Amino acid sequence: MADKGSIAIKTRHSQQNFNFADQTPSLMPPRKKHDTKDDNSVKKTRSETNPKKISRKSIGSFEQPDLTSFLLQTNGQQLSARQSNIFFKRLRELEEADAHLIYRGDKKDRLLDKFNIQPHGFPRMFNDYLFMIGDKGRHFWNGAIEEGGHTIPTFDLTDTSKEFLEFIFDTLRSILIRKDYSESLNLRLKEFAVKYPDFMDFFKFKKNKKDFIAKILSANPRERLNARDFYLTLLHQFGKNDFYPASFLLSVTKRISVARSFIRWDQINDNGIILFGWVPKEQGHLLYNRFMLAGKQRIFQSIDLPTAGRFYKEQHEITLKGGLLPHYIIGYFYREQGVENFEVNPAIFDIADPDWPEQGLPVDQTHFGEQIKGTRFKKAFYITPPGDYYEF
Fold first, then answer.
1. DSSP per residue over 33-81, as a string?
2. Which of 189, 209, 355, 361 could form a disulfide with 347 if both were Cys (CB 3.0 to 4.6 A apart)?
């Protein structure tokens, strides 16, 4: 199995790739009819290059969009009929592999700034960076963060120190005992307390911090890290705390509608981007914190600490550890001058491995070291075949 992450070494193919650190509304509003010659030309070509219709549907709680309503392109150039056939064939292969489709909404200007790219560099230069580097958590591109008159502490991917565990307990406790949130958030916390009373009772008392730290530190290294990741996922998903601004986790959702509403797609004109990717069925543990979906009971039976579910269940969130790797990005949706576009990751056209839904796309990262120097990323990570993360 290939290593992937901020450095991905694909030993399986003797190739080295380097990489730093229900019904829902339509993704876009209905298209308006125009009588101009250019618009009619676009509509005709769009029909010609989308011969296979992929309808939006739910696969479990995951959604697949209808991509036939978008102008499909790669590096700003419209797909040929042959490329379009290949693209839709790959989507069907992902469906057959039971891959979990994921989405992340963001603002174009924010992503351009992260890669240190000027607006005129979109989409070609932006693609060069996104499809080589992927998207990463705040930890990898933020420096020291000052907030509320104090410096927010930062911890790396492998840290299970007593200090980090103290920080986790104290931050969780501060969330659960605080009373001055908005009315709606206070109500949500009350509902959370009713649903998870053992969790609330444990973390609201400061005396339990010693027990929390001792039980995690007494576990074997893998379980210790898994337990830490579980509680960090809760902190990251809640959002309003000291961990979030320096988090090495990245939020994605299983629902297009959530990604769309998160960035207020209908209100930001041409400044929205929705990344579209997938999590492999069999190797998902390498890409996302799996405890919200399965497996947490086994981990915590040995550690004997209370667990809880999401604060915001309606967001259908998956929390990626480190970030969304370019090997698992299908492309992204965006809108430009009223035209609805989908930019395809060009690596999709280079697939040779029949096991690509599990192994990821064959991303060419030969010049990664040179490319990363111009971005705002400050840290890196890599993942070993057993699923261990390391930061450098």
1. P---HHHHHHHHHHHHH--S----EEETTEEE--GGGSEEEETTEEPPH
2. 361
